[in-house]
Amino acid sequence: MHTRPVKAYKMNEDFKVLPKIMYMGEYDDDDNLINVYDASKEKLTKIMGTYQWILDSTGEIFFIEDDFSYLKN
Fold first, then answer.
1. Segment among 5-14, 26-35, 46-55, 56-65 with least mean pLDDT
2. How far is the C-alpha of 68 from the C-alpha of 16, rounded, in Å?
3. How far is CA 69 from CA 9, 55, 65, in A?
């Protein structure tokens, strides 16, 4: 397993206007995203069948996508 940044966008908000939030994603050996953690290391829960994850403590739902900016370094 390995970790790398992912982009998180709050659902029901305009993705182009609001800044993205950087979270950490945990990936398995086949490069599948299996866990997402916020800045305080709270684990988000995947909403099955979607690209959405929920932060249980607040009920906020996020769209998660890979962040490939780390490849530019």
1. 5-14
2. 18
3. 16, 24, 12
Mean per-residue pLDDT, 36-55 = 94
Classify 72 as helix, strand or coil. helix
What strands lie across the sheet with 33-37, from one edge to the other? 33-37, 21-27, 2-10, 60-66, 52-55, 45-46
Query: 12-44: per-residue pLDDT in tens?
Result: 766 555 556 779 999 999 989 999 999 899 999
Measured CA to CA, the distance from residue 11 to residue 26 in angstroms comes to 21
Q: Tokens 């994603």 identify what position?
A: 25
